[in-house]
Structure formats: structure tokens, C-alpha cells
Amino acid sequence: MKPLPLPKQKNLRADCAWVIYQILEQGKSSRECLERVQRRHNAKDNAWIQEMSLGVMRRLPLLQYWLRSLLDRPLKGNKKVIEHLILLGLYQLNFSRVSNHAAVGETVAAASYLNAAALKGLVNAVLRNFQRENLADKPVDDAIINSGLPKWLFKAIENAYGADAEQVRSETNAMAPIWLRVNKLQTSMEAFTKALDKAEVAYTLSESHADAVILTKREDITALPGFDKGHFAVQDGAAQLAAHYLKPQANERILDCCAAPGGKTGHIVESAPDTEYVLALDADATRLKRVEENMTRLKHIVDIKQGDAANPETWWDGIPFDRILLDAPCSATGVIRRHPDIRWLRKSNDIDNLAQLQRRILDTLWGLLKPGGTLLYATCSILPKENMAQIQQFLSDTPDATLSPILKTETLDKPGRQITPGEQQMDGFYYARLVKSLD
Ligand SMILES: C[S@@+](CC[C@H](N)C(=O)[O-])C[C@H]1O[C@@H](n2cnc3c(N)ncnc32)[C@H](O)[C@@H]1O
Hints:
NusB-like_sf; 16S rRNA (cytosine(967)-C(5))-methyltransferase; cytoplasm; four-stranded antiparallel beta sheet; binds S-adenosylmethionine; Alpha-Beta Plaits; eight-stranded mixed beta sheet; 3 domains; N-utilizing Substance Protein B Homolog, Chain A; methyltransferase; alpha/beta; 43% helix; Rossmann fold; rRNA_ssu_MeTfrase_B
């Protein structure tokens, strides 16, 4: 599909339709396109644009089903974006608090901002027919459409989770809470929660995480008390387990591999401020800038390098590491509830390619680990090929690797801890801890 320029003049719904087009037709991430659009709106409108465009990602199969039943034939070429505008209209009518009057009227008007004034009649007719035919009240008897997921992912979850698949799918399509990690090197839990109370910020404490706070209302993170002073970082509860499972110690050399934007790097430093050396490595220079910004704000000192994990000769100084965190590039299927566009950006054949890349990096990093050293393998995936099956195969191919169980229930056939989305309010994540034998 042809690139579509950003509408010349700002308009809430036209800009939303542009974001949806960019994600679905151009394969761009929501973060990237929202950033462009949000430069020209105020905070309230930006929140609306984000809620609506990500909402469409969550409900896309049902919205498309309705669209197909209302539109005689698909729109093509530069008219395609009008389909996305109609999807947005259908989403507002069904899943938002926008009045029906505004959902139809304003969506029709937005067509002009997308250079398609001639199609206003069509947008109006489709949305009015939807209301007239009461499609919202006619149940759709199709589990895949109702799941909000692409067919390949629906099936992959079915195969992996059997009787629990429905629960995993529904949590995958739910809204994620915002977790904060208190930076205990700059404040204390007591002082931080006192400051939140004073600012009347609604939150709960996590039963499982001593350093975590879970916000119960959406907040502007940068306006929370202590943000500028580095008193906290935004980090999901599952991601907060990485430093806990890695167990960094004083005087050790630590590699945080695939580190950007540095969420786990910061927590490693907070867990063991007196390590000898922490290296945050990532292949992506742009994302590494965010590591620098985050470390500066949190007041942590680490070494930051750009490099391909599978090619250590370009970045490694030759001294082995005591501990390595490999937060491997993955399908991110465990964080779809947080980034609903991922389900449409990933394709089923990505999974085999990712599993091969993960294995290549794992094999390479194993050579950089001291005898007796620990490697924590992590992904934010819920698919066994990237997780249990990956580690099971690695253990069987690598004679000097042994499993250091995180859970008592782990076996060589079922290594590691698979967290599913929503478990104790956490994202979907996988961890396996491996130790290198001494001889
Ligand atoms: C899941 S994210 C890491 C999140 C990070 N650990 C955190 O906690 O904030 C995966 C990262 O892997 C990086 N990456 C992908 N392939 C890589 C490679 N071959 N070498 C190094 N980094 C890579 C990506 O740039 C991305 O930043």
C-alpha cells in the first residue's frame, strides 16, 4: 500500500484514521505514528487519539466483519484510509463514550481532512446503516473474531495453553495497569508512597513485589512526585522479576544484553549498587539514547554500548561476565495488552525466525560467561517455541549448561517460569536461569 502523508490540517478523527492506516497498511508501530500525530494536539486530545486508535487495534476483527457486511466492495488506493475512518466510526459507536451523534457527524466531517470529501456520503451511509440494522446487537458466532486476535495467534495460544487458552486470550486483549518501580537508591517506599498520598495519586501496593506500586488511574507519569529526581521508573511487574532472578552481587561483572530502553538495567543497579561493572548493550542506537536518558534520570552509572549481541568481537573487551541477562528480541506476544498493535505487526512466520535469532545470541553469550556464572534468559513472549522449547533444546545441546530452577516445579522437560498476561496483574513473560559448570 502507498505511503500516506499526514493530513495537512489537524483533526482528531482524520489523525486517528491516519495512525490506523500507518499500522495496518504500512506496518509501522503505534508508538512511532502516535508520536508524529501527537505533536500537534493538546494532552487531552492526545489521550483520546491514543485510546481510539489502540481501541480499534483491540477490536479490529469484529469492526472489519461489520465493515465488510456494510460496504459493497473494498476501497482501494488512496481511498483505503476511508475504510480506517469507518472502522474508527464503528468503534466509537460501540466501544466508547462518544455520543452517537458525534460519532457519526464528526467522523463524516473528518473525511474532508483526508482529501476525500467526495466520500462523506459513503461514510455517513455506512455508519447510519450500521445503526439502522442494529448490527451491534446481533451476536457474531465466531470465537476468532470475538477474541480480537489474528487467526494464527488465536491458534498458537490454543495449542500452547489448551483448557486455559480462553483465559490467556482474554487477558491478552485486556487493558494493562501501570506499574512503577521505586528507585531505592534515591528514595524509600515509605517516602515515595507518602508523596503519592500527598499528591492524591490513586495506587495499590503489589502483594508479590516489595518495590512496586500499581497505579489505579491513568496518570501523566512525568507529573508524578519524584519523576525528575529519579525516584521511580515505569516497569511492569513481570519485568521487575529480572533483577530478582538474576541476583547480581557486589564486585561482579554484569552484562545486560538487549538492554534498551534500560528498564532492567536500572533495576540491576538498584539491586546491587556495588557491582564492578554493568554493561548495557543493544543493537539499536536510537533506543540506546533512551537508556542514557533513563540512567541519567535515575542517577545510575553504567557502560552503554551499541553492538550486535551475536557479534561480540565488535563490543566485548574479552573479560568474561559473572552474570548475563539476555532479554532476547521476541514476538512480544506477552505485552499485546499494553501494545495492541503488535498482534497485527507480527506474522506467524516471524516466530521461527525469532527463535533462530534467540538461539544464535544465546549460544554466543554462553561463550562470554565465566565458569560458574549465571545467565538469565528472558522474553516477553507467551509462545513455547521462544521459551520452554528453546531452553529445553539449549540444555540438551549444551553439556556445560545446567538449569537453576526459579520454581520448584521446573524440570528439564519444562524449564523456566512462564508468566501469562494478567497473572498477579503482570505482563506475559518467560524466565529461565542457567548456570555454567565450573570445569
Ligand atoms: C525486549 S527489548 C529489551 C527491553 C529491555 N531489556 C528493558 O528491560 O528495557 C529487546 C531489545 O533487543 C534489541 N536487539 C534486537 N536484536 C539485537 C541484537 N542482535 N543485538 C543486540 N540487541 C538486539 C532491540 O533493539 C531491543 O531494544
